[in-house]
Amino acid sequence: MVEPAVMVTVPGPMLERAVEAAVGDGFVAGTVVRTVSLPMIDSIEVGLTVTIVGAYFDLVERADARVPVRVHGRVTVGRPSGEPLPISLPPLDVEVSALVEAQLDLGVDQVRLVIDLPGVEFLGASVIGVEGAAPSDPMAQMAQMALAETGDTLFSSLGREVGPVGMDLTGIPVAELGLSPGRAVIRSTDGALTVTIGGVTGETASAHRTPPSREDRIGVSIDADLLGPVLSFLATRALGGIPAPFDLDLSAAPGSLSVGVRNTRVLGPPIPDFRTGVRTAVHLTRRQDHLEVRLAGAWLELPGPLGVFDGIGRAAATLGASVMPIVARLPISYPLPNVDDLTVRIASLAVGTDRIDAQLEFVDTDE
């Protein structure tokens, strides 16, 4: 079982929006060639081309990794050679119900999302419309007959021919961020999809399922132990890729974070740790257009028995911060890797004793 270092809860409407952005005006999934018999025409070889135009998710509690989905597509009937048919058949709008398994694989420096099309279980397909003609139109009925003659094999064959489809998000240092490389656990729950990612920071983790407050938001819960690796990675990036010459010790409390900084330890146990460090406490608050980081104090952490004096330094630092507050502002919007014209924004943020819970939303930057 994966210990939840990160849990992401995505409601159905957000998944549908992601599919809409991915397919755009339509994604041509492929063409399946079949021989069919139609009125006034002998057996004829036709190519049925399927274009995906959208998807809707009927998310319910399931014990496996398969996700219930209704795919909306357009089926056009033509000759495989590109030559015109003896009669013109209008495109059909179809709805395909299926159980689809999504896989999220975390590598060392990338994340790959894969849809297992060959393993899709098709539950049924129906014609929901005919483009440019009434359903009772003779040509429309012939197009439906051509689709019906292929049976369920049209979509299953298409899945086998196309194979697994995926998208890579590169430049994400999974291990450096404290995450465990491997496959995440994806489950369909009532109204949302939950993704659980394990961590390497300890035997247990404290992230939990965070239902989104609205259907246009994503709920994220992060174990507090991940904050240290994340800050170390950011420090390394700030130093141009040079490993940070210090160790970070991070702890969370309701509404605030405590960060300890010490030089990198050279000698490990059984040699006692006599390093002197600096610890800061900051309060995090999500404002209208930024994330406010307010310094609540900074003091020395003394090694060994001298640590009994740390409380005095902390009290003095807290008093000084209240007299002369130091406040920094961080952005709440960040671009998504490999995704144009879309940013993710922090809609809400809550810091607890062992985890951080957030609500995220997508923002179109081209609007």
How would you summarize what this structure contains?
Helix content is 17%, strand content 47%. The chain has five helices and 20 strands.
What does it look like?
This protein has 367 residues and is of the alpha+beta class. The protein has two domains: 165 residues; 141 residues, no CATH class. The chain is 17% helix and 47% strand. It contains five helices and 20 strands. The strands form three sheets. Strands 2, 3, 4, 5, 6, 7, 8 and 9 form an eight-stranded antiparallel beta sheet that branches. A seven-stranded antiparallel beta sheet has the order 10-11-1-12-20-19-18. A five-stranded antiparallel beta sheet has the order 13-14-15-16-17. A hairpin with a 2-residue loop joins strand 13 and strand 14. The longest helix is centred in the C-terminal third of the chain and has 14 residues. The radius of gyration is 28 Å and the shape is elongated. The relative contact order is 0.14.
Q: What's the number of domains?
A: 2
The number of helical segments is 5
Mean pLDDT: 76
- Shape estimate: elongated
SSE topology string: EHEEEEEEHHEEEEEHEEEEHEEEE
Low-confidence regions: none
- Structural class computed from helices and strand pairing: alpha+beta
Q: Tell me the strand percentage band.
A: over 45%
Described by strand count, sense and barrel closure, the largest sheet is: 8 strands, antiparallel
Helix content: 10-25%
Beta-strand segment tally: 20
**What Rg do the Cα atoms give?**
28 Å
How far is the first residue's CA from the last residue's CA?
42 Å
